Amino acid sequence: MWDVDADAGGGANCGDGQGDHSCPGGADTPAAPASGAPPPHASGPRMRPHIFTLSVPFPTPLEAEIARGSLAPDAEPHQRVVGKDLTVSGRILAVRWKAEDCRLLRISLINFLNHLSLVVRTLQHFGPPVSR
């Protein structure tokens, strides 16, 4: 009933759609020195932003709109480097992230999925909305 399709440019990876690879600043990248110097990847040429899209089907268009309305007010803590756009088309809630930093993208996704889970459980618990 609640399927989720994720697409990051050809697969569920963090990056620019060029296939599986590790992300700068990911778990396999050494942390920045305690002196506050920038991490090794920060001095190279400007990287393309990371794009991640998520499509969540709901049983009805009204439930998709309710979910969007519940999730949209959550502003990104790092708005300058992570952008999030929520749209509804029919019964599909589509979310698109664009981020400069892969680690912040991952944090945003995890937080969003936690909130989405709460919204879905709430809709399931209270049943479909009734029209007035």
UniProtKB/TrEMBL annotation:
InterPro entries per UniProt: CTAG/Pcc1
Compartment annotation: Cytoplasm; Nucleus
Region spans: Disordered: 1-50
Keyword list, A-Z: Cytoplasm, Nucleus, tRNA processing
GO biological process: tRNA processing; tRNA threonylcarbamoyladenosine metabolic process
Biased composition (Low complexity): 24-35
Biased composition regions of type Gly residues, renumbered to the chain: 8-17
Pfam families in the record: Pcc1 (PF09341)
Gene Ontology CC annotation, any one: cytoplasm
Protein family per UniProt: Belongs to the CTAG/PCC1 family.
Known partners and oligomeric status: Component of the EKC/KEOPS complex composed of at least GON7, TP53RK, TPRKB, OSGEP and LAGE3; the whole complex dimerizes.
Its job: Component of the EKC/KEOPS complex that is required for the formation of a threonylcarbamoyl group on adenosine at position 37 (t(6)A37) in tRNAs that read codons beginning with adenine. The complex is probably involved in the transfer of the threonylcarbamoyl moiety of threonylcarbamoyl-AMP (TC-AMP) to the N6 group of A37. LAGE3 functions as a dimerization module for the complex.
Protein name: L antigen family member 3
